[in-house]
Design a protein that fits this description.
The structure is a single chain. The protein is globular. The two termini are 31 Å apart. The protein has 16 helices and 15 strands. The relative contact order is 0.13. It has three domains: 266 residues, Zn peptidases (Aminopeptidase); 156 residues, Glucose Oxidase, domain 1, CATH 3.50.30.30; 131 residues. The protein has 571 residues and is α/β, with parallel strands linked by helices. The strands form three sheets. A seven-stranded mixed beta sheet has the order 3-2-8-4-5-6-7, with helices on both faces.
Length: 571
């Protein structure tokens, strides 16, 4: 097994001790977040691992408490980050806007879980209650239609913390209009049903929220383990160390994984071809990835010029997580990651398109990426336990609740997952030629265009886009054939593989320009062409506007693929 000697050095001693330590105190208030950073820095120094601690000021919204007063009683609630502070309360009639609960993580972040938002009149001036989590698209649409408050009715007996803005990281001037301007809370299912009964009788309720919002100095610890052959080039391994409550599965186990990988990689640093950079982020929970966004902004040029891949570490090592299913990875990384999981864990794996979530703050720079969540429990076990879809903790519904405690972590699964992460990092850091196959990406492009073209029918012609993909595919076949035959210059091949990421990742995962940040809302495949999927059903006037958008989107796409083809021709 490749890197067997290094993988054998992974132990549970230091990581499990960190998980146990983190399980003793909550880590979402800024002062507790900084204290937890100090614990990790102390551990790193005890291993002899050098660590740099940055202290940026990032903008956070810290939730404290909330309640719903209804029918003479007070109902427990939680405010999501970025809800407004409303201690005096907002009182209004309550109206129920029915929605469905997501059945899988694949639809968890979608706009409204089928909520009927067609009638603004019945929402205006009301407090809305709707099934689901307090995710941003749905909350914003309620606000835009005139709701004065929103109650998210969570699926189970617990209430889940979260964040209700689509702003990615610390807002800039263009982002500020998307800050919520109404109080928003979440309640559990039982209390939600009681509130729906009140809505059916036309009764009023009061929402009260207690928030703390502003600029906070937060610590960002970064470890740099230099490679001996290409020290300027690096793999970025990262994850968040703030959590909701004690957050054992989300993300103390991830923090412990990165701590152990830092220890092992430092010990074996002489065996690294490229550098490995490991970073722990604050502001994930209360700032919508504010820590990783700060890093992406302030080290953008270094990331652009030298980062060969970014690897996110969130919720490894959770109980019952026996499968690698619905793992986030970009198509060019799929074959490589599947090979690592098979070699290290002996398991087959299944991936999915990365969600616009999980500290993927580097898409607009254009960096090949894999992992977000790692292992998870089987669907059959979730069904047997009556679990609903959540966004972490290996599928355990303790996610974002007070119940994410030591019982959620599993020693054997954590040891396996740490080795999978280490194997993948070593595979990228030590490959003579970067192990990413862009033919998988163009294959996905072809499939996306075929789907969009079928949906559009005669309403829009995607032939230029299809031709650009076919031409690039031909060039890539020749490029990878040269690599397979041993005739490629490794250094030049790596320039091409990294350069293709800068061109093709943004075209597939972003709308905003490079070095900006798209909102934290789902991004469809080839987003500037996605209107083709709906254009046939539009009325004639709207269809005209959609055609204008698609012409512009197709121009962007074709130009990008031709630039990619010119780059491939230089190898």
């Amino acid at each position: 097994m490749a890197h067997a000697e290094i993988l054998a050095d992974v132990t549970l001693d230091a990581p499990w001790a960190l998980v146990e330590r983190f399980s003793t105190f909550p880590r979402w208030k800024p002062e507790d977040v900084n204290a937890s950073c100090d614990i990790m820095v102390e551990a790193l120094k005890s291993f002899g691992v050098p660590v740099t601690v940055h202290e940026p000021e990032i903008y956070l919204s810290v939730p404290y408490d909330a309640r719903v007063k209804a029918g003479g009683r007070t109902i427990r609630a939680k405010p999501p980050a970025y809800a407004i502070d409303c201690r005096k309360g907002v009182t209004a009639p309550i109206v129920h806007v029915p929605a469905t609960y997501s059945r899988s993580i694949g639809s968890l972040f979608h706009k409204s879980q089928d909520a009927d938002l067609s009638s603004a009149e019945r929402i205006r001036g009301k407090i809305v209650i709707s099934e689901g989590f307090a995710f941003p698209q749905k909350m914003r649409e309620f606000e835009e239609k005139g709701a004065v408050g929103v109650i998210a009715m969570n699926p189970g007996v617990d209430i889940h913390w979260g964040i209700c803005t689509s702003i990615w990281g610390t807002p800039d001037l263009d982002d500020l209009p998307r800050k919520p301007k109404i109080p928003i809370v979440a309640v559990n299912n039982e209390n939600g049903k009681a509130l729906i009964e009140m809505a059916s009788r036309g009764e009023s309720v009061t929402i009260e929220t207690e928030m703390r919002e502003g600029w906070f100095k937060q610590k960002v610890p970064v470890v740099e383990i230099k490679g001996s052959v290409e020290p300027d080039k690096f793999v970025l391994l990262h994850g968040h160390y703030d959590s909701w409550d004690v957050g054992v599965g989300d993300n103390a186990t991830g923090d412990a994984t990165m701590l152990e990988l830092a220890r092992v990689l430092w010990k074996h640093r002489s065996k690294l071809r490229r550098t490995v950079r490991i970073a722990w982020w604050p502001g994930h929970s209360t700032g919508r990835y504010a820590g990783s966004t700060w890093f992406a902004d302030h080290f953008a040029i270094d990331l652009d010029e030298n980062c060969v891949a970014q690897v996110n570490c969130d919720s490894p090592g959770c109980r019952w997580a026996t499968l690698f299913k619905d793992v986030s990875w970009m198509p060019e990384t799929e074959g490589f990651v599947q090979g690592v999981i098979k070699e290290v864990a002996g398991l087959e794996s299944h991936g999915e398109r990365p969600h616009r979530a999980g500290d993927y703050s580097f898409n607009n720079i254009g960096i090949s990426s894999f992992f977000m969540l790692s292992s998870t429990m089987p669907d059959e076990l979730r069904a047997e336990k009556g679990y609903y879809a959540v966004g972490g903790c290996g599928g355990n519904i303790a996610w974002h609740t007070e119940n994410d405690v030591m019982d959620i972590a599993d020693k054997d699964i954590l040891l396996r997952d740490m080795k999978v992460y280490l194997g993948s990092i070593l595979g990228v850091a030590n490959a003579e030629i970067l192990p990413f196959d862009w033919r998988a990406t163009t294959k996905e492009f072809s499939e996306t265009l075929a789907r969009y073209s079928k949906a559009a029918g005669e309403a829009f012609d995607l032939a230029p886009a299809k031709a650009a993909v076919a031409s690039l595919e031909k060039a890539l076949d020749a490029f990878y054939g040269k690599i397979a035959s041993g005739k490629a210059d490794a250094a030049r091949a790596n320039v091409v593989i990294q350069g293709l990421a800068r061109i093709l990742v943004p075209i597939n995962f972003t709308v905003a320009p490079r070095f900006r940040h798209d909102p934290a809302t789902p991004v469809p495949a080839l987003p500037t062409l996605a209107a083709a999927n709906e254009i046939a059903a539009m009325d004639a006037t709207t269809q005209g506007f959609a055609k204008v958008q698609l012409v512009r989107g197709q121009n962007r796409f074709v130009a990008a693929l031709r630039a990619a083809e010119r780059l491939v021709a230089t190898a």
